[in-house]
Amino acid sequence: MKNLIVFTLLGLAVFFVGKQFWPEEKRIDFNTQVKPILNKNCISCHGGVKKQGGFSLLFREEALGKTKFNKAAIVPGHPEKSSFIQRLTLQDPEEKMPYKRPPLSQKEIQILSQWVKEGAVWGEHWAYQPLKKVNVPYSSWWKKAFSWLGLPIGWEQNEIDHFVAAKQAEMGLGHQSKAKNADLLRRLYLDLTGLSPTEAEYKAFESDHSDNAYEKKVDELLQSPQFGEKWASMWMDLARYADTKGYEKDDKRSIWRYRDYVIASFNQNKPYDQFITEQLAGDLLPNPNESQYIATAFHRNTANNDEGGTEDEEFRVAAIIDRVNTTWETLQGTSFSCVQCHSHPYDPIRHEEYYRYMAYFNNTRDEDVPDESPYYRHFKSTDQARVDSLLNVIKTTYPQDYQHWKNSIQFVEPKIHPHWADEFVNGALQDNKYLAVRPGGSVRFKAVPMNGKTEMLIAYKNTNDSPTQLIIRQGSLQGKIVAQIKLDTTLPEKEGIKKGNWAHGWTYAFYRIPALAGKQDLFWSFQNKSCQPEQNTAVIGYWMLLPNVPKPLQSSSFLSVAKRLISTQPEGTTPILLENPSEFERATPLFERGSWLNPGKQVDRSIPQLFAKYYNKPIRNRLQLAQWMGSPQNPLTSRVAVNRIWEQLFGTGLVETLEDLGSQGLSPSHQELLDYLAYQFQFKFDFKPKDFIKYVVMSATYQQSSEYTQESKEKDPNNRYLSHGPRVRLSPEQIRDQALRWSGLLSSKVGGPSVMPEQPEGIWNAPYSGMKWNKSDGEDQWRRSLYTYWRRSSPYPTQVTFDAGTRDICLSRRIRTNTPMQALNTLNDPVFLECAQFFARKYPLDKEDVFIEKAYFQLFGKEISSTKKKSLLNFYRQVLPIYQKNQQKCREFLQLCPDNTLPAAAPNLIARTLVSNVLFNLDETVNKP
User: Fold this and answer.
1) Exposure winner among 71, 255, 320, 848, fewest CB in 10 A?
2) Domain that holds residue 763
C-alpha cells in the first residue's frame, strides 16, 4: 500500500513537472493572431468588397471553396498544398502575395502556416460572441474571500479594481491613491449632473466624516433631476437631435418633447432594454401611451428635405438608410453602413443582409413630406379628453376598429400625399410637394386602398373667386363617377392681403363617397370657370379615407364628433414613427451598389446570420427586433452600452472606437473587464443605468487621483490602463453650464422647448426659411446648454468650437481637439463675460486678495496656491488703472449708454470681472479633476 502511494505521488510529481517544463503547444488563435494579419494585408483584395481570383477570406466556406483556378487556395491541415501559404514566399512579384505591397514578416507567415496546419479553424470576433460570466482575477485567495464577504481590503473596492489591478501588474504599472475630497466631489458632480458643486456643497462634503459620506453623495446626485439632463446630453448626439430638418432649407422642427422623454427616462432609471424598445418600436407596444409614441421620434430626427423639386421617395429612402445605420452604430457599435453598397469588408455580414434588416424600418408611414407626418397631435387637455372618450367607445365595443380610428383622430393617418399622383394632364406637383391642377386638368391616383370606406377628408387651398369642381372617376377619365365635390374658396389668413399673394392655411373638408372594394385607380379632374388658363384651380396638400363607423354607432353623433376632432388644431405636434396599415405595406428591394435607383430582388425581413444563430424566436416586425436587441442572446447591446457609459466617466471607452466594436475597431484595453461589466449590467443590474453607474463610481479605479507619475507617463501616456484618475477636458455643455452656475444665473427649469441664448449677430443666414435667432427673455437665456436651439446648418458656436458635431448623422464620440479658438471663445464670448461679471458681483466689498481666495474656493473647494494668487493679483492691479482712467472703456465694457450714471465702483467691478473670467479659463476649470 505504501509503495502504491509513493508511486502515485511520484507519478503526479512527474506529471506536474512535465507540465511546467514541457507545456502543451498552444494552438493558434484566429481572432487575436490570424484575423489581424488578414485584415491588414489580405482582406482589401480578398474580402467583402473585392474577391480577386474568386478568393475571399471573409467567410470560412468561401475561403475553403474553389477559386477561379478551380481549386481551393486553403487546404486545411496541409499548408504545403495551400497556394494561400505558398504564394506568400514566391519571388515573382506578379505572383507573390500580398500583391504589390510589403511582404509579410517571417513570424506572420509562420502563424498563418501553423493555422492552416491546425485545420484553418475559424473564430468569431470577441464582440460577436455571446455574453458569459467572467471570473474576477483576484490577486490572492484572501482578497477573494474578503470580497465575497463584502469586506474589500487593500486598494480594491469592488470587482472592477481587481481587473484593473491585474492589467496594471501585467504592464508593470501601479495605481494612484484616492483623490482629494474637493477634486473627487467636483469629478462626481460633473460626471453625474454635468455641473460643478457649490461652495456650500464643498464644505458639507468636507465636514461629513462618516464612513459612507461618498456613497451618500453618489445616491443624492443620482436622484437629482440634473442627472437626466447630463446623460441626455450624451444621447442627443447619438439620436442626432436637432430643432431643424437639415438639408438646404434646414427649416424648423418641433421635436423637443423627445428630448424631454430622454431626460425623464434617465431620471426614472428606466431599464436600457425598455429605453431602446420604446425608441425603436414604441408605436407597436400594446396600448402605447403618449410618452412611448414620442420615444419613436428617436428615428424621426432624420433629415427631411423640403427643397422644391426634390423627389420625396429618394429622401424617404435616405431617412430609412440613416435609421438602419444609426441603429447599428448607436446600439450595436457596428459599422453597418459599409454593407449598404457591398458585403462588409472585414466582418462577416453580407450585402443582402443589410436590406433584410432595412425591411424592418421600411414600412413606417413617413414619406419626406413638408408637414413631417405622421405626428402625435398634442391637444389641450379638454380636447384630449374628448379624443380619449371617443376612442374608448370603439376600444370597448369594437376593439378590431380601435387602431384605425386612433390613427385617424390622434394622428390624421394614413394620408395619401400628392406624390402618389401620376398621369398629369395640365397639372403638376408644385415643388414636387403639392398637387396643383389648372382648368380642365386631371391626375390619377393609382391603386388606392378603398376597402369600402365612404368618408373622405381633403386638405386643400383654393384662392379663386369661385369654388372649384372636383370630379372623381373610377378606372379612367371616362369611368364611373365616384364623387362630385365642391372645393370652396379659401379665405385669407390676414386681411389686407391681395388675392394671389395670400399666405393660406389649409382648408379641411369632409365628403361622402360611395363604397368601393379593394384597390382602385381614381382619376381626379378639376374645373373652375373663374380661373384663367395659367391659374391653379386648387392646390391639394393631402387626402385620406376615414374608417367606416360600426353600424350600431352610425345613428349616433360618433362620426360628427370624430370629424370635429380630426379638424381641431392641436397645441403642438411631434413627428413619430407609425407603422403602415397592411394595405399600405411596402416591399423592400435590395439596392444594387446601394443606390435606390437600382432596385434588385425583393427581400424578406431578418437579422444577419451572424446573430440569428443565437436567437430562436421569430423577428417579424420592429417590436420583435427591438426585443431581440435587449435580449440575452444579443452579444452587442450590453457591451456597447457599458462601453459608452465608461467613456462618459473615464474619457475613453474600454474600446476607444465607440462606433465600432467590430474587427476594424481598436482592441479593448480590458476585454475581460468589458465582458464582465456587460454581463453584470444585463443580469445583475437589470439594465438599470443608475445602478450600474453607481457601481462604477464606487470603484477605487474611478476615485483615483488624476496626478500621474513619471512611470505612468512613460508606460501609460493615454491612461488606457487607468494608472491614474480620469483627467479630460469638459464638454462644451459642461463648460458653459458651470459658468452659469457659478454666476448664479443658471435656470433650474427642467424640460420644455429649446431656447436661444446670447449669440453674435450674423451667425445665422437663412434666406429660404426666414428663420431668425431671437434671443430668449428672462431665465430662458440662462438655461442649460442641453436646451439651446440646435440648427444643423449653424450650430451654436461654443458647441462647434469645442468639437460637437452638426447632428446631421449620429455621433458616437467627440474627438477632442485643442485650438486657440477655444480659449478665444471662452475669454471673449459675451455669455462667459456676463457670467464672470455676475460672479464678481458676489464679492463687492472684499479686498482684492480676499476676493481671489473666496472666488477660487467657490470654484474648486480648496485654497488657492500662493503662485496662482500672486499671478491673479498682479493681473488685477494691471487692469484696474486702465479702467480707472477711462470712463468710456468702462461704459463699453458694462454696456451702458452715455446718459447712464457710471457707478464709482465700476473700475473695480470690471477688474474683478476680468479676474473671474481668467478663473473660468484656467486649465483646472475646463478639465475634469
Assistant:
1) 71
2) 732-820
